[in-house]
Design brief:
It is built from 2 helices and no strands. It has one domain. The chain has 57 residues and is mainly alpha-helical. This is Tetrahydromethanopterin S-methyltransferase subunit F. Keywords: Membrane, Methyltransferase, Transferase, Transmembrane, Transmembrane helix. One of its GO terms (molecular function) is methyltransferase activity. The chain crosses the membrane at residues 7-28, 34-52.
Length: 57
């Protein structure tokens, strides 16, 4: 049986994007839009990692 590499995880990117977006937004007095923008960027990055990982298999 062939050994498959473990799947890549993108959850860290979602959490890090949300937290960093909120922190950057807080500096500009717009924590909620910063959080949402960071969350969106994290989700996009996680989807990219998922697509690359699914093609690797």
């Amino acid at each position: 049986m062939s050994e498959r590499p473990p799947p890549a995880a993108g959850g860290l990117l979602i959490a890090a994007g949300a937290m960093s977006g909120a922190a950057i937004g807080f500096l500009y007095g717009q924590a909620t839009p910063g959080f949402l923008a960071g969350l969106a960027i994290g989700i996009v990055a996680a989807i990219v990692i998922w697509q690359v990982d699914s093609r690797r298999r």
